[in-house]
Amino acid sequence: MQRLFFCLLAAFSWTLAPAPNVAPNAAADEPPNIVFIFADDQCFDTIASLGNSEIETPNLDRIARRATTFTHAYNMGSWSGAVCVASRMMLNSGRFLWDAEPVYQTAEQEREAGRWWSEYMKAAGYRTYMTGKWHCRASAEKSFDVARDVRGGMPDQTSAGYNRPLVDPETGEVTDPWSPSDPKFGGFWEGGTHWSEVVANHSVDYLSEASAIDQPFFMYLAFNAPHDPRQSPAEYVAKYPVDEVKLPENFLPEYPYAEAMAAGKKLRDERLAPFPRTALAVQTNRQEYYAIITHMDAMIGRILDALQASGKEDNTWIFFTADHGLACGQHGLMGKQNLYDHSVRVPLMVVGPGVEAGRKIDHHVYLQDIMPTTLELAGVKKPEHVQFHSLLPILAGEDSPYDVVYGAYLDKQRSIRTNRHKLIVYPAANKIRLYDLSSDPLEMNDVAASPQYAAKIKRLFSRLETLQAEMNDELNLGKLSRYTRSGS
């Protein structure tokens, strides 16, 4: 088993960071650099080389060719309608969902106490950089040595960006007052430069600075894209003629349990398209979704080029992921406040010295596992409060420490996912849904009512309740608990 060896830094005790399947390189006696690239609202199936034939992502494809890709990476969910907040709080604190929630209120104290991702990297001797979306209550400016253009949850949306486009049922005339490429609507163009370009500009500057410093670097590069308002220059929108955009196979005009699961007509994300959903509205939203991803991809290309030009690429690990996915018309939903794979599953690609190129790993992981992975690479002993796990053992060929995936949204939704099945629970609707993912990966055929699955539901529900206890999830599933006592 080969290992990476890192140097002993003053004022910090380094530990050996085993990375089987990761061959030592010429810089193996130096701690590796870390570049973390973070998208917002990007579904796992929006990268060309990973199976999407509609979208253009040449630079994410470039990463995928060099990377090992974790094909089943997840976000646990959220205690808030702003799913981004919970995801980012878990990432930076290292804590599971319900343990991260109370810490969100005291995030600055956590940072000051050193129980924070970037603070561990600083203590390990890293120069730290950040730009883009933050959405944590701890100060970004204090969390990193250098922080520029720290953004909030999303660019300002306008009223014209909701409930669109509309089609007159009698005349067929289309009404759409909003344009994804017109800077007059502000949003991503607030300040005069598209926010994705701002992230790339700062990233290139950081890499230029880092190339001249004999110190390892940690970069937290967080795009707001492809979050709405999904804006990009006209040439990117033109790549996706709306009438050529495919309607998702699991398209529905309305989701039957949307109100009971707190993803109904009052939820901001869901108001982006009209009710009931029309084919044109979904195609238009997906057109703009693809366009802003392709524009972000071009900015990621600039970052990759700058890293290559820095002379530091050979001893740099790159992690690319997103905070969660997005429905964008699947299942009659537009947002991420649901527990279907399109909304909880994300891309996760890892590039590093000796990491196998083009490899895919299907084991279940969480995107927040990136945090302890980088700590291990930096030689930091895993802190006791960090509940997520390093990906390095899985890269070495070991199994995932997670036998199932846990999902939660407010007190309205719970789920458990195995390799083959997903059970989704809606307590307010007194409803359980079950999907056999081996034959139904798009989660279109609820088989919960089928007698042949009664025993399976009982086992999964019992495992979910056990998992709730492990996760400090205090939600009582009430009447649905009958599934722990019978197969009915």
UniProtKB/TrEMBL annotation:
Spans annotated as Disordered: 155-180
UniProt keywords, alphabetically: Hydrolase, Metal-binding, Signal
Domain Sulfatase N-terminal: 32-380
Domain of life, source organism: Bacteria
GO molecular function: arylsulfatase activity; metal ion binding
Gene Ontology CC: cytoplasm
Alphabetized InterPro entries for the sequence: Alkaline_phosphatase_core_sf, Sulfatase_N
Stored CDD domains: sulfatase_like
Signal sequence coordinates: 1-19
Enzyme Commission (EC) number: 3.1.6.1
Cited SUPFAM superfamilies: Alkaline phosphatase-like
Stored Pfam families: Sulfatase
The protein's enzyme class: hydrolase
Keyword Cell division: no
Name this polypeptide is given: Arylsulfatase
Organism: Stieleria maiorica
